[in-house]
Model the fold of this input.
Amino acid sequence: MEIACRTENDTTIVKITGRMDAITAPSFEKALNERIAEGETQFVMEMSGLEYISSAGLRGILATAKALKGKGGWIRFAAVGGAVKEVFDISGFGSIFRMYDSVSGALAEPA
Amino acid sequence: MENETDTLRCAADVGNLAEVTGFVEAHAERCALDTGKGIGLLIAVEEAFVNVCHYAYPGGTGDVELACGCDRGGFVVTMMDWGIPFDILSLPEPDTGADLMGRKIGGLGVHFIRTLTDEVSYRRDEGRNVLRMVLQRTDDGTA
Done:
């Protein structure tokens, strides 16, 4: 799994590629926690390159989102597709989080 | 590739996850498993394997063995361990309708095992936990 961050409109865009499983999920949580510790509170996950996600990945996302909510921040998801979309749907994550077709769509929506 | 079964035995250690999913993935490909179903199967296998790693051998270590088989009925993965008796299927379903702050962390693993396989069963057999997961074949010949 690779994580690449960039900033646009005071929002951190996190591009995730590869597989988020029990081995790699902790590095996702760590990367986001570091950003949150630096004071960043608005995140868009760019998911088009993510091929696989298990409950370990969802656990990391949920923990991060809860921490952000406590700080008045938010996390949105863009371009979730394929098997990852199916996992979001069956876990209920597709309705917990705001989902967008593209990063630009996620950035355009007011908080 | 019909009625052939192959096995992998390794330590029940999360560090072996790539070896375990790689083993299942290779057999799923040989069984001409549909890609979408194949990823679902790998997720179910990961959840079951990680569960064994965390809970089967409290305070100690042990092995896990996987068997993959393919026949006209579908693709079958059996996961065995010699740990304490534990039926993962006895765990409650998560509340998938809860909102963000109400949502509990955990419980999704067994939910994925149930929903991403066509058939799943547990039995305790001669000191072993045996979890059997099946992906059935579809009419077009793919599983």
